[in-house]
Amino acid sequence: MRRFLYILLQCTWGLPQTLAGAVLWLVFAGSRHFRYREAVATQWPLRGGISLGLFIFVSDTTLCYHEYGHTLQSLILGPLYLPFVGLPSLLWAGCYRLFRIRRAYVSVYPENWAEHLGRPSLRLDRVSGGAGRVRAPGRRG
Predict the structure, then answer these.
(1) Distances (CA, A) of 137 to 17, 73, 141
(2) Are the beta carbons of 53 and 74 closer than 8 angstroms?
(3) Which of the residues 16, 17, 115, 138 has the least number of beta carbons within 10 Å of its own beta carbon?
(4) Is there a contact between 84 and 77 (Cβ–Cβ < 8 Å)?
(5) Distance CA 132, CA 118 (A)
(6) Rounded distance, CA 46 to CA 99, Å?
(7) What is this structure's pTM?
(8) Which of 12, 41, 14 is CA-nearest to residue 28?
(9) What rounded mean pLDDT belongs to the chain?
């Protein structure tokens, strides 16, 4: 039921970012895909991660919990996610890399909020013995 509601909300309230995520998923269709909690995750060849509605894209699976936090922001903000989280996050990531900022990446909005929302999923993974961890589907990849 929880997964159904997550998908339903991402595909209605979070439709703009979910559509963008679906397009990006198609671009990286040949990459490894798996499920992280309720999200559809892709391990892509690019550096870092991005979250677009139902979809998360990560270079390293250790980033999944943080990107999952962004999917929860999408559930909260709906169509306001892209201007109020997506754009600031993209700008911060670009400035962080371009100017080699010495401040912690997750110390600013909206990264600190995503970190706060995503951390419980990481703790649940540890408590449940990995029941919610990154799981690869039946296909090879």
Answers:
(1) 24, 25, 9
(2) yes
(3) 138
(4) yes
(5) 13
(6) 19
(7) 0.84
(8) 41
(9) 87
Alpha carbon distance 12, 23 (integer Å): 16
* Rg for the chain, CA atoms, rounded: 14
The count of residues in the chain is: 141
CB-facing half-sphere around the CA of 101: CA atoms within 13 A: 14
pLDDT tens column, 70-80: 999 999 999 99
Q: Note the pLDDT tens digit of each residue in 117-126.
A: 998 877 655 5
**Three-class DSSP category at 135:** strand
Tokens of 113: 């909020």
Dist. CA 12–CA 104, nearest whole Å: 34
List the alpha helices (DSSP H) in 1-141. Answer: 2-12, 15-27, 64-77, 81, 87-98, 111-127
Q: Tokens 């397009």 appear where? A: 23
Place of tokens 């690869």: 136
Tokens at 100, concatenated? 């080699």
